[in-house]
């Protein structure tokens, strides 16, 4: 009997692995469509609090939805124009940065030569390909044109999502039933609230980081503070490593134009903002309700990013939390939710065993 149970368990695991592989392949093939759909859901979540606030002010629901979507469109268009202008200026100024880079490298060679350390031009200059940066910037500028069409589709989708949001609770109640699955209904609504809570707080802190970084770079005189502030805002959604990735091009730019002291001041500013917002204030407001293992955070970043591109990178935590919620509400997959969760100390370990695993 035990051997038969083991056989069934092994077959079930193989079936799950195969199903996940097929789903991953389908998601990869539909990456573009799913990416803008996920961004639409993300914007709808952000737009829900102001929508409810307008409704409490006795503004009709339809008008409130149109006002929220119009506000989103205005913010996105203005941000796109500012970032596009900064990208265009950066593309134009690339040759001058190449000249400044050569001067910095020459000064560094003289300094190192005084200490009997010889570094050739081929070791430094040729490791940096300005043409590659030029091509990347040009492709991003071309992408802004096609992004306008996708933006219209996303905003239309957001509009319909918000229009349907008021009836979502009733639909969910009809699906789960009125009495027998009342516990599941409350668990699901609580999960939706937690995801909204996470996305809302993350957006506020991402916006704060973008503004603080932009102001700090403006004070230091670093070129294109709006572009780098927007990059910091976007990458703050990427847990643990996003802030450091956003700092790399700015530190290099500050070093090229101003030297080591300015680059060090840029680093100090980024570290201070990232530490205060990301490591002190944000965890205080988030709590541990949405806790994930650090390893899971990194793996989910790579996994969802490879499947969905930038949308997967930005939304890797909400997507993983959705998977965790689905697993923890099924006895057969609850062990997956435990593995995805944060570390458990011996005194906080659950007294009951996970189904299928001896205590």
Low-confidence stretches: 351-359
The dominant shape is globular
Number of helices: 13
Biggest sheet descriptor: none
Q: Whole-number average pLDDT?
A: 75
Distance N terminus to C terminus? 21 Å
Order of helices and strands: HHHHHHHHHHHHH
Radius of gyration: 25 Å
Number of strands: 0
The percent range for helix content is over 70%
Number of domains as seen in the coordinates? 3
Structural class by SSE content: mainly alpha
How would you describe this protein?
The protein folds into 3 domains: 26-164, no CATH class; 203-288, no CATH class; 291-350, no CATH class. Helix content is 81%, strand content 0%. It has 13 helices and no strands. It starts with a helix and ends in a 19-residue tail after the last helix. Residues 351-359 have low confidence and may be disordered.
List the helices and strands and how they pair.
Layout: H1 2-29, H2 31-56, H3 61-113, H4 121-124, H5 130-176, H6 182-220, H7 225-235, H8 242-258, H9 260-286, H10 294-308, H11 310-314, H12 316-328, H13 334-340
């Amino acid at each position: 009997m035990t051997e038969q149970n083991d056989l069934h368990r092994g077959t079930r695991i193989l079936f799950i692995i195969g199903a996940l592989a097929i789903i991953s392949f389908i998601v990869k093939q539909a990456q573009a469509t799913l990416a803008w759909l996920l961004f639409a859901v993300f914007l709808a979540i952000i737009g829900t609090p102001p929508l409810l606030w307008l409704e409490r002010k006795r503004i009709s629901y339809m008008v409130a939805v149109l006002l929220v979507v119009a506000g989103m469109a205005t913010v996105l268009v203005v941000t796109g124009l500012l970032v596009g202008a900064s990208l265009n200026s950066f593309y134009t100024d690339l040759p001058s940065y190449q000249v400044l880079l050569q001067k910095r490298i020459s000064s560094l060679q003289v300094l190192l030569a005084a200490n009997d350390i010889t570094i050739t031009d081929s070791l430094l200059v040729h490791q940096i390909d300005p043409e590659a940066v030029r091509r990347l910037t040009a492709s991003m500028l071309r992408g802004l044109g096609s992004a306008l069409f996708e933006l219209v589709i996303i905003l239309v989708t957001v509009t319909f999502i918000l229009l349907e949001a008021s009836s979502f609770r009733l639909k969910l109640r009809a699906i789960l039933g009125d009495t027998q699955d009342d516990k599941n209904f409350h668990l699901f609504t609580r999960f939706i609230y937690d995801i909204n809570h996470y996305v809302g707080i993350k957006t506020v802190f991402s916006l704060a980081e973008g503004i603080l970084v932009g102001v700090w770079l403006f004070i230091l005189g670093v070129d294109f503070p709006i572009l780098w502030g927007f990059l910091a805002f976007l990458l703050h959604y990427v847990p643990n490593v996003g802030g450091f990735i956003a700092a790399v091009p700015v530190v290099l730019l500050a070093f090229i134009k101003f030297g080591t002291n300015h680059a060090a001041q840029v680093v100090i500013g980024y570290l201070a903002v990232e530490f205060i917002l990301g490591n002190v204030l944000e965890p205080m407001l988030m709590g541990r309700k949405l806790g994930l293992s650090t390893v899971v955070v990194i793996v989910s970043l790579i996994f969802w990013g490879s499947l969905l591109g930038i949308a997967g990178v930005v939304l890797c935590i909400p997507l993983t939390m959705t998977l965790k919620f689905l697993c923890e509400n099924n006895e057969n997959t609850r062990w997956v939710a435990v593995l995805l969760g944060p570390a458990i100390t011996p005194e906080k370990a659950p007294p009951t065993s996970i189904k299928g695993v001896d205590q």
